[in-house]
Amino acid sequence: MEQIGGGDARWSLKGMSALVTGGTRGIGHAIVEEFARFGAVVYTCSRNQKELDECLEEWKCKGFQVAGSVCDLSVRTQRDKLIETVTTYFDGKINILVNNAGTTQLKEATEFTAEDYSPIMGTNFETSYHLCQLAHPFLKASGCGSIVFISSVGGLIAVPVASLFAASKGTMNRVTKNLACEWAKDNIRVNAVNALP
C-alpha cells in the first residue's frame, strides 16, 4: 500500500481524515507525524499560534497534508468552532478523532483547591467527552469512525501526588468502554491508550 516517507508498507491511512488535539508537542506531535506519514489528511489545534505555524511549516516541508488552527479547548464555544471548522475542511466526515490534549498538576491530595479542579478535570475529561459528542455524527457519516483517548497508567494504578490527574484519566478510561459499547452500532471504535505519566 502507498504511504509517505517510509514506515510499514503493509497498511495505509491514505484517504483517511484525522483530528488530533494538542498536536504541536509531545505525544500529539508524534501522532500527527505518524498519521501523515501513513497518508492521512490531518487537522490539529494548539493554543499557541507561533508554535502551530512552525509545526505546519515543518510538516509542509516534509510533504505531509496537515492543517490546523488556534483553539483553547477549555472554552466550550471554541470547541464548537473547532468541530465546525474541521468538518468543513473534511467535507462533513471524520474518520479519526484523537483526544490528546491534557494537563496535570502534582500536589498532595489535601493541597488541591477548587481552582485546581476545573482545569484538570475540564481539560482531561470534559473537553474530550464534549468533542466526542460534537464529532459523533461526522464519525458516523464516515462509515468507519475511530476515537482514541490518550489516557495514562495513572488512571489504572495509584500515582503519588497526582490524585486529580488520576481521577480524570480513570474517568476517561471508564467512558471509553461506555462509548465503545454505545457507538459500536454506528461503526465507531473507541479505545484508550494508557501512556506512561
CATH topology: Rossmann fold
Indicate the low-confidence ranges by residue numbers.
none
Rounded to the nearest angstrom, the distance between the terminal CA atoms is 35 Å
| DSSP summary, beta strand count | 6
Number of helices: 5
- What are the secondary-structure elements, in order, as H or E? EHEHEHEHEHE
Q: What kind of sheet is the major sheet? A: 6 strands, parallel
Name of the CATH homologous superfamily: NAD(P)-binding Rossmann-like Domain
Give the overall average pLDDT: 93
Which geometry do the CA atoms define? globular
Please state the second-level CATH architecture. 3-Layer(aba) Sandwich
Radius of gyration: 17 Å
Fraction of residues in β-strands: 15-25%
Helical percentage: 40-55%
